[in-house]
Each structure stands twice: as C-alpha cells, then as structure tokens.
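User: Can you help me understand a structure? I only have the sequence.
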Amino acid sequence: MNARRKGPLLLQKRGVQNVVNHSVLVVKKKHDRSNDSINHKTISAGNFLKLPSFVSNLTVHCDEHQIKYEKYCPDHQLLLCKKCIAATHKTCKNLMSLDQLTKNTKPSIPTNIMKYIDCIKMTIQNIKQNRNGILTRVHNQIENIQKEISKFRSQLNKSLDNMEMELIKEIETVEKNTSGQLAILNKDLQEHENNVEEIKSGIERLEKYGTDFQIFLATNKIENLVHTEEEYIQSILKKKSLKI
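Assistant: Let's start by predicting it. Here is the structure, written out as tokens:
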C-alpha cells in the first residue's frame, strides 16, 4: 500500500549493470510503442543506478493483482489498476489517468520536505548528544555503585562467614540425627525383608513337601503374615520424609 502512494515509475532495479542495460533497452522499446506512455520519459541505465533504493524499488504494477496501474485516485491518494477500480473505487469521481498526473504540472519534491529532513537530522543529532551525556552519567553512576558494592561485599562476607559456621554446626547436628534414624530404619527394613524371604521360602517348601490338607490349613496363616508385611510397607511409604 505504501509503495502505491509514492507515484508511478517505469523501471525496476535489477542490481547488475549488464542486466540493467538490457532491461532498460527492452523497456524503452516497449515504452516507445505504447500509447499509454506519451507523456512519460525513459531513463538511462546509468541514471537509474544512481536513484535511491526507495525509488528504484517502486513498481508500476499492482502488488495485489499483478497488473499495470492505470489510474490515480486523488481522494484516497492511491494508484489503481483495472481490478482495483472495479473492486473498491467504482464510486470515486475524480480518478485521473497516469498521463494527467504530469501533463500540466511538472512533479517536484515540496520545498518544506527538505526543511523537515534538516529538522529531523538536527533533532537526531541533539538526541545523540543528549544520549551520549546520559551514557557518561550512567557510566559514572556505575562506578560509584561498584565502589558501594565492593564495600558492602566486604561487610557481607564477614556476616556470611559467621552464618556459615553456624549453619555447618546445625547441618552436622542434622546429619548425626538423620544417620541415627536411618540406621534404625535400615535395621527394621532388613528385619522385615528377612520375614518376607522366610514367608516366601516357607511357601515354596510347603508346596513341595506339604500335603493338600496342610496347605489348606496354612493358607490363612500365610495371608495374615503377608498382610502384616504389606501394612508395614504402606506405613513406610506414607512417610514422605524422615522426621529430623
């Protein structure tokens, strides 16, 4: 949409001299045969390469419909192709052909544009100068902050050393208590592991050597023993952490 607002051009930049020369020659031949180009002038390849990129990159074809612009709508400040006119500008009454744009008045850059450009440039320079001053002040502040941090770090290190000593004492106490609890727990776990292994071994011997009647009588006892061990395991699992 922005490219269409800046007006028509007859050429597009190709980037390399030999390609540009060829393209300009082809466009010129077509231009000379075209009735729509009576009031347009061609441009040499050398001059074309001197154009700024925001001009040389403009196109005479509609970006949306990929066909040539034919009219200009001063009400909306848009270049239009046939499809644009049919789709959204049927009611516009002041449409102008591209020839009309430059027929009676030679296009020129408004003089106030250069004033705006100079003003913008000066403003940019002032902003840069201001920002450089800010940068200097920030740098000085950083140096002062670093000095304060260094001083604070020295004081903090002393406090941290004292805290470290106290924490080490507490950790050693916790480690001692935890080790004692773990020793008790491991002993208890080993005892129940032995119980489970004994139950398993007993079942294997019962199935191998016992009678059907003995198996029948022992089944209830075995279930009670297994249930006891299962309850123990569940009680351990419910304890998410050891009490320290």
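Now, to help you interpret it: The chain is about 70% helix and 5% strand. The longest helix spans residues 111-209. Let me know which part you'd like to focus on.
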